[in-house]
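Hi team,

Filling in the usual template for the complex we talked about on Friday. All components are listed, including any nucleic acid strands or ligand strings, so the model treats them as one assembly.

SUBMITTER: L.P.
PURPOSE: interface mapping
COMPONENTS: three
RESIDUES: 1305
SEQUENCES:
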Amino acid sequence: MERSFIAKNPSVLVFLAILSLFTIAVTVLSEGFGIGVISTSFVKTLGKTLCLCLIAVAMDLVWGFTGILSLGHFAFFGLGGYMIGMWLMYERTRLIVVESLSRADIPPTPSEVVDAIGTQIFGVVGSSDFPLIWAFADSLVLQLVLVVLVPGLLALVFGWLAFRSRVTGVYLSILTQAMTLALALYLFQNDSGLRGNNGLSGLQNLPGVTASQDVVSIWFLWASALALGLGYILAAWIVSGKFGLVIRGIRDNEARVRFLGYSVEVYKLAVFTLTACIAAIAGALYYPQAGIINPEEIAPIASIYLAVWVAIGGRGRLYGAVIGAAVVSLLSTWFTGGQAPDISLGFYTIKWVDWWQVLLGVSFVLVTLFAPQGIGGLFDLWANRRHPDRHGTNLGPDDSSLREKEALE
Amino acid sequence: MLRLFLASLAILCACLTANAQETGLQPILQAHQDIIAKSSRKTIGPAIDAIAASDLPQAQVMLETWAAKDMWMRKSDGLFFAGKKAEGRSYELIDFDTGEVVGTYQKSDLKQLKPNSGIRAMIGTALVTFQLTDPNRDKRLAALQSIQRDPEAALLAPLRASIDGEPDAALKAQKQRLERLLSIGFDEDTTARVAAITDMSGDLGVDVRAALNPLVVTTRQVAVELPGNANIAAILKPGSEALTRDAAYDLLVANELAAPRVSADDIRAALAANIEGGRVGDVPVAQLDSDAKRVQAYSVLAEAGTVPAFITPADVDAALGAHVFFEVFSEPSAEVTAAAEKALERIELKVGLNQTLDLSLDAISLASIYFLAAIGLAITFGVMGVINMAHGEFIMMGAYTGYVVQQFIPDHTLSIIVAIPMAFAVTFAMGVAMERLVIRWLYARPLETLLATFGISIALQQLAKNIFGTQARPLTAPGWLDGAWVLNDVVSISYIRIAIFVLAMIFLGLFLYIMKRTRLGLEMRAVTQNPRMAGSMGINPGRVNMLTFGLGSGIAGIAGVAIGLFAKVTSDLGSDYIVQSFMTVVVGGVGNIWGALAGAGMIGGLQKGIEWMNPSNTLAAQTYMIVFIIIFIQFRPRGIIALKGRAAGD
Amino acid sequence: MSTLLEVSGVSVTFDGFRAINNLSFQIGNAELRAVIGPNGAGKTTFMDIVTGKTRPDEGRVIWGEKSVSLLQMSEARIAQAGIGRKFQKPTVFEDQTVQENLLMALKNKRGWLGVLFYRPSGPDLDKVEELATEIGLKDELTRKSGELSHGQKQWLEIGMLLAQEPRLLLVDEPAAGMTPQEREHTTDLLVQASKTRAVVVVEHDMEFVRRLNCKVTVLHEGSVLAEGSLDHVTSNQDVIDVYLGR
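RESULT (copied from the run log):
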């Protein structure tokens, strides 16, 4: 028991090694730093995928380990993106405005500069005034703080309300979904202060950076990989200790944990808020690579997809979440991007652009029914680890408890 | 000599209209030959009046001909005829009185009368007199409508005159109403106007408000002294809420009673125009990036007289103090404005009450849509505890079934009658298949059910897209569902919404009947309460679950037909309703049909209520509604109608 | 003997059904008490009230020397105050090892931050081993508790209760489904535990109760019917009526 954290969790080391190798390989093959085998847009796709893996780790922590099927974590992801997007858009517009105003006869006053930025940014929604929420948009540091603070606070308030009233199981899922929907609908309004359905755009251009996108994309890849690595270590550390025992206990049998004297609500709230912050960081790294964020990204369906990734990867094991997110999102890009070859059946040609969703939906149903351990289960086969024979009973009375095939002997 | 005689005769005839029947229209026209030929709006009045007053049946035809620029004057004797183009450059002339062809003439022998638009308008007014008494009812109605469209003072007299002779009771009522409305605006007698206003002050019609509103229109004015003769609505004090000091000063500027203030833009423009050697005034251009420096530079320019001086607060005070601000009615009669304000106030109150009624109807209608969308869920989720994320897709499938049926059965009534059982059959089969293949393996795992059914949902959505394409498909309601039931100008509700309400009520009854009165309902309740016990009593829980799920899905399909009638049928039709449906069931209270009803009522009412407070923004309404629901769940976690005690299964 | 827990005048109604009716009950430090009663007598509901799961409609539940009311406290706070509960069905964390189960129950900081940074120390691990020995699971420490036999799970749960070091133990039908040998072991465990703390055992099995050799409280229709030694209550006419039917 007195062994070090790494020794107890060899999979963390393996994961970090693979992640480093991957990052180095992409760098070497990229256009910005290497031999140019991988296009910059694909580097961005890979960088974005790393961010999705990070939010999947967060989702695994909250669902796989704590048993809260949150259908709202993409809301936090999106909010993180919005927070960093505000600074990117403000600063970039400011540079452009200052540049253009400096050509006028008379140097501009600070308020004229701000007004001009406001007109530039909010022209599309028929406004020119800065809403209150943009108060800190001129400061990178403050806005970076907000990346964590705003989603964290939202998660804290929402979680406090939800957990306090002991809403659990599917009700909680529906409630989180409602929260996401409310946020998305709010952001869709033009007077939400975040440009309605136009969203924030041009985020790929870092203000004041003259390096080309080829180079910037690699920077973001590194940053995303670093964030994923740190997030993974943090998550692995959390679940390896007694805290991990408690949240797994909450997942399988909440009432028992309560009678042991642990305040279940506080633990849930802590995990919910922490994972919201991780999701927000992932979002803050994702959207500068995507270049644009709009309320569509926050729609409830995105968060359900997140749960699907984790489930396909195998919940309750961190590497499962990462694999699920990476595999499904990359496959999704491949199929919907039109790169997958069509299959001709003679009388009908299967175009994957049209049929990928069907395939995903059906395979997801199959995974849920027949292989709840997901892709991660392949590692069990390989390591010759077996599932307990429990005649189909779960490992606890709660809805979210582990299923027979998810557990290991 | 003859012409003189005829002219005097014509004048005589004009006065004695009884004789006009014998003498005809031509003499009257001749009496006014000069002004008719001159065609000037200012002088034409007496001619049109005389023609209109003749009361001759042919006068209407003549006026119409004139307005259509088909009246010609024979140059030889100055007589007027209706002209009809004949061969070449010749015209066939027709006598107005007899209707007989007089002969064909070259264009050079004739003069065409081309009344300008002003005259045509006057002719039109004169024509109304005839139209209002036209034997044809449709023409009379058209005339009334044209008066309604643009009322005029001149129309009041002919309208009044036509009321007594009106044979049609409905039209007579309309005429009387219109007469009252015109009296409000155009009667010369103030007392009559006030009386008309009082008469109409209980009426909800938009036209009444349209007639009253112009009477209370005010304009904001400023003067050194209050004018004695104006109908003043209010005196405004600068600096009050109604009139800010800035607005007051702007008013002064607009009336050229004060010099305009110098705005930041003005300063900038003035500075830019006066750069001399890299300096403005004595300030270097580079330093002009703050307001203080700019003002400093501007002051220098102002002192030199190159630009207008600043307006100081003291200047503003003085200017404001020297003038009086007031609002004045454009209607000069104070009695009329007072009566109109009072009447409008009464109408507003009544309108408010009726709007509340209308809003309640809207809310009920929205609630029945939510109820319809949620009732299937109330069975699958509420009774069985199965979360079915594909519920929305069942609604969509129902709607598409309706669309497909309409492709084969063109008659809309019949197709809907066929579509409803078809939709039920299709979604019932789909529901049973889904229950057998997926859901029954996951009964103990509601969270996995949620995700698996989500997988089905995305697959079904994409399938629908592949089959029917992305564009919306029409599902047309039968003709007798078109239109709306109009109670008055404020309250109305479309027949489709009434039909949906009725359908929702039928479903409620059906549900209660099945649950309370049938064997299936009994077995359903038994299985949901205690499947093991039910199983040991000879009930086959698998079969009951299958049928229950099929029933819930089938009802979703029928709801789909109903929703498809007013919403566009697309592949994501269902996802628009799914969250609201879940909310409805959760808020109402799971496991209880009355709960779903209460939930639908609350959500529908709430959404309409919030929309009413902020009418421009349905998105905001939905946002606030969801936030409200999240908070509501805090206080009643089990919904409005909660199962109590141990049965709630905590 | 001072009073540790005092329940007085407590009533609970579920949907019109009176599960507990003006119940009063007392137990002192280091006392072993058996509670018996027919089905529906309110035994489990009584435990629910004491542990905070169910809020009574009226009455008082007073705890400890400082006479704190338990009614406003959450389940976790009540557990922290020193009331441990064992459920009817053995409920252990089946996906976790015996050692992990015991570590979690061990009396330590319960706050989330404290738990997050907690790493098991030598004394804690010794304590776990000691407990495991006591409940006869020393050799199973690294096994997942889901693989244990029914009886072993019951003992593990009792072990977890002891690890909490509660001042009052509420034990719901500990002997259900056990072999005679296992029962004997369970009896020993409970008697041993009651030397240092109060133990309330709810049990159907008269033989088991007899072996506990302690004061017995008979519940019926939500209130106390009789109290005293087993022989005393079994000779009570009311009790005989209730158990054998009139």
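MY TAKE: The radius of gyration of chain A is 23 Å. Chain A touches chain C through 33 residues (CB under 8 Å).

Thanks, L.
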